[in-house]
Amino acid sequence: MRGMTGLGRMAIVLLAGMLAGACRDRGGATVGGREPVRLDSVPRNVEVRLYVASDWAWNEEDTLRVTVVNGTEQPLSGSLNLFVGGPMEMLVDSAGGSGGTRPGDVLSSGEGTRVVFPLGTLAPGASGEFRQAVRTPPAPRQRRPSAENDTTSRFAVRAWVAAADGAEVAQAADTIRIRAGSEVVAGGCGGVEDVAVTRYGIGPLRLDMAAADVRTLCPEARDTTWKQEGTTERGMSVRLAGRPVTLVLAGQKVQRIVVDTAGLRTGTGVGVGSTLAELRARYGRMCAGQGEGRVAVWFPAAPGVSFGLDSATAPVQGGTVDAQALPDSAAVVRLWVRQGTDDCPAS
Fold first, then answer.
1. 9-177 has CATH 3.10.350.10 classification
2. CATH second-level architecture of 189-259?
3. What's the chain's Rg over C-alpha atoms?
């Protein structure tokens, strides 16, 4: 992920006003050593600073940074809302702010995604910093120039502080702009380097991507079919960083991605050939079940990715798998990037 130095733009909006009447309506609430006054009753002098990098590429991970400054004379409570226009992705599992701040609600719509960070309590004159990892979408298919096409490489970003009653107090807005010539097309996907297995996909290939867009990004992609538990599956064969992967299609969209050769790994360094001991050490609590004719394990701490194990795995008893009974020596022979639940099934 690129560092935040050298960011090109900073959007600052300052809303100032004295709402002494609001304090009187509250009966003269005080704050010294007591409950913080809610944001909607504080004389407002709140500043929101939104930092957006000036140089973005397709299928790139980067960080948005927001600073909230409490210029009031009383503690601040409320929430920070950060919105990015679709199809930008909020990488919520990797998001974090200063002091380990984590987002609360994640709300998605056809227009984009919004994450809500609790402000906690900001002391008078204090500030809080919030960071959010995002990923730009893969390059779109080439279209004929049009007025509409001018907006396909621009994504709106907005940050605002909301009071306890939901009213907007201060806000800042900017735009993520994709630089020209950053499409991953030349040479196909086989030459793409530095790809990692994530909950959203692998390199430029993403879950829910249209098959037509896969062919645009990876001209060498080939259609394929196979039998799986008596059912004919349909998909595409693609090479990423010189390693083969299989895209399983549902209709004309990528439903899951299958890796069964060594070389492609998660951000923590595990993949085909890793042992169950390594997975347990990196991800902690483990769930187990059956998938595609073998024992599969997954981890709430590593959402969106399942690991298929070799024949050294303990046998399935009564149709269920005891995760605790699986031996540390079991090896990963397959990875699935998929949608669906990431928690353990009820026993």
1. no
2. 2-Layer Sandwich (3.30)
3. 24
Q: Pick from 254, 265, 268: which is nearest to 339 by CA? A: 254
Give residue limits of the domains in the chain: 9-177, 189-259, 276-337
45-60 pLDDT, tens digit each: 889 999 998 778 777 7
Reference 342, options 245, 197, 199; nearest CA is 199
Contact 52, 11 (CB under 8 A): yes
Give the pLDDT confidence of 255-306 residue by residue, as tens digits.
Answer: 999 999 988 998 888 999 999 999 999 888 899 988 777 889 999 888 889 9
Give every CB contact of residue 181 below 8 A, 6+ residues apart in sequence: none
- In angstroms, the Cα distances linking 233 to 256, 307, 340 are 12, 20, 19
Give the predicted TM-score (pTM) of the model: 0.55
Residue type at 266 in one-letter notation: T
Nearest residue to 308 via CA among 211, 240, 228: 228
